[in-house]
Amino acid sequence: MMKSDKKNTDQIIAEARKHQQERENTYRGQALKMYPWICGRCAREFTHKNVHELTVHHKDHDHDNNPPDGSNWELLCLYCHDNEHQRYEETRFGHLTIATEEKVEATHNPFAGLDQLLKK
Predict the structure, then answer these.
(1) pLDDT digits (tens, 9 = 90+) for 70-79
(2) Reported pTM
(3) How deeply is 28 buried, as exposed, middle or buried, from its count of CB atoms within 10 A (0-12, 13-18, 19+)?
(4) Which of 11, 97, 100, 102 is most buried when burial is the number of CB atoms within 10 A of its CB?
(5) Residue pair 37/51 in contact by the 8 Å Cβ criterion
(6) Is residue 109 part of a domain?
(7) CATH code of the domain in which 58 resides
């Protein structure tokens, strides 16, 4: 290996270690060290292969509230995390449905005449 190749390799390794340290200092990195890699809702277990699908949910929905003891965090899989935020939005803003004053009744019956077809 040439000196320039070794220097380049050493630089790449140093940068990778620096980025790893930065990640570990984030609340996600801290939570992954602090808690078992299991979704807090569906109990799905995670490994190094799929840990990217495990997210950190802020219980109070404030992403700036990151106490070092992790009391505002819980690990949730992508699906449970999306569901939690959807439930929060529906609670916060009310049920998101289109309300109409008058009740609309169906005018088409897809089973009309079915009994005649079954008799044939």
Answers:
(1) 999 999 999 9
(2) 0.60
(3) middle
(4) 11
(5) yes
(6) no
(7) 3.40.1800
In a domain, 61, yes or no: yes
Q: Are the C-beta atoms of residues 70 and 30 closer than 8 Å to each other?
A: yes
| Rounded-to-integer distance, Cα 118 and Cα 110, Å | 14
Structural domains of the chain, count: 1
Average pLDDT in the 90-103 region?
Answer: 61
| 102, pLDDT greater than 80 | no
Question: Is the Cβ–Cβ distance between 38 and 23 less than 8 Å?
Answer: no
Q: Which helix (H) or strand (E) holds 75?
A: strand 73-77
Q: Which domain holds residue 93?
A: 3-97
Assigned domain for 92 exists: yes
Q: Are 24 and 33 in contact (CB under 8 A)?
A: yes
